[in-house]
């Protein structure tokens, strides 16, 4: 069995019929798995926002982002039936402030989940 060690910068997609061995020694057949390894020490100006409630419109979310700092890119989209967004700030410090202000905060009865993207 081949063992792969991932670093904080790695982004991999495993092909179909991939078997992953858990720490408990159990093998799991995964039909398709995309893995993104993120290290909290490696921050960037690019954020992913997930678990967005349907009542939160793109205009309001964009305003929440611009209230924190200057944004370079904003995209809101549906993935697997879940509303998500990606935001790129001009400065990493603004992304840090948005993360601190909104990660796990309740907005319209839903906890937003913010993650740094590489």
From TrEMBL:
The keyword RNA-binding applies. It comes from the Eukaryota. SUPFAM superfamilies: RNA-binding domain, RBD. Pfam families: RRM_1. Residues 48-108 form the RRM domain. Keywords: RNA-binding. GO terms for molecular function: RNA binding. This is RRM domain-containing protein. It comes from Darwinula stevensoni.
